[in-house]
Request: fold
Amino acid sequence: MIEYRFAVGDKVLCNLGEAGWKLGTIIALNYRETTWPEEFFAPYQVLVDDDKSLIYVPEDDDRFCRQAMPEDIRILQRSDALATFQSTALMDGEHSTVGERKNNLSCNQDANGLGYESYRSGRCHCCNDCPNQWSYVELYSEHYRCASRNNLNITRYEVDLGVLSVGDQLMFTPENFPNCKTGFMQAPTLVRLPPGIVFSDDGSLSGVVRFDPHRESAYSVEFVAVSTVDWMDETIGIVRLEVTFEVQQNLPPNDFDVKSFTKRQSKARSKAMEILNNLNNIWGLWERNELATRAVCDRMLKELNKLKDIAEQNPRLDNGRWWAHLGGFHMNVHKLLENTLYECELYLGYALTFGDSGVKYYAEQNLNGCYQKRLLEAARFMWYDGMECILQGRWDEAISILKAAASKKDGWGWAVNHGDIWLCEATAVVLKGFENEQNTSIENDNDWMVTAESLLQKAIERSEESGVFGPEGHPWIHQVLQALESYKQLRSNGDATKEWFEEFNSQTIFWCSQALAGIAPFPPKCKERVVDEATLLSKLPGHNA
Reply:
């Protein structure tokens, strides 16, 4: 008997080519069809969850079929992170009811600023401080899950409008709603609506269903919108509105040129494919060290602007595929320290709104990395905040911030690679420990010194891993270690330590200033954005034409 990796009843992901990876259940082993030669058989027959179709897997190989992980099931078994699971229990600490809020959510922000980058504070699980400003990814992505991470209640309101035909009038106003009657234009999935149907901020739909050239003669609509207006009301929280209906007789009118439309779409697709190949080739040059970082960024951003133009002119081309690629490749340049995480999230989030399972799965794979980059960015900017506190003599606050920064990604930050966060925390511990020692009658209290040396050891190991520094290691670490040895000697001899503290504090100010200015060996200062976030957001397509 041949031994297979999976058994009947196992949940698997199957590669359906252009249709993407689909979730399914193995229903038979050693499958064969009557027309096949007698010696031919397939290892598995699979029932696909999506449409209940039957497929077979040609080889027992990860290229064709792999184990479905909990994350895969979460992504593919519900339409978004605010929906309920179709057939499995909530996973990974998800909440469907109100829990204790252990966060700093607040909408008391500067009215002149939208606070797109408030996640850099590290608060609220690196979600925006204000739910009223949560983006597509913060609301819908299975990797961000801002509602459940922050223990907000979700009130779900679902309605089925039945069957409509092209030319029918649609008038829908939600009834039996909770108190919330506004705010639904925050992140609606407008691309799922038929042309001619308009969605309003109060949750209503109106208009006449028109022909949609992007869809089959009959299709399903699963429209989703949310309102976070009442997020502070624990009986309501976030309201998720889902409106479903079927559209029939989606046939082109006499004045619609199908051939011309198909030709335009094909031409746009060919241009997009050419750009995609260029992006892959440029990235390959960087990976082979054949092109400098600055040149790679410039060339990739130029190609991405071309792809953005195509996506804006053909917003529904290939069901959101190109929006997903646009977001995914912006993540490549973010790795090279371009300030483009917003673009990654904006375009990948917009791709989620199409509801296409293949596009969604591709986008979510990239959004996993995007959320990790949020953590890295938060660690970096919290490091900055910690150093600002050190410069102002607020040792306790500095230690608290730096400890939280180190916990985001095990001491790493966005381009913060040499144990700098632990180093700064150790420095703040030394400053606080010395000050406490001078202000109390307790002598020879070495707890703070043990803590500082433990943090410095972590920083030393990280800096040595980088291979950047010479035999003496990171210059600031080296200087702090020397200072600690000097302090121990002074204290054991009973000598005065006031001058030592003044010198140590002076050195600390110097190094913090160097780091905040982006001078080597610290990461360069974060670049200014090329295009502001509000402009990019305003260029996303609205209702279907």
User: Anything to note?
Assistant: The first helix runs from residue 70 to 76. DSSP finds 14 helices and eleven strands in the chain. The longest strand covers residues 154-165.
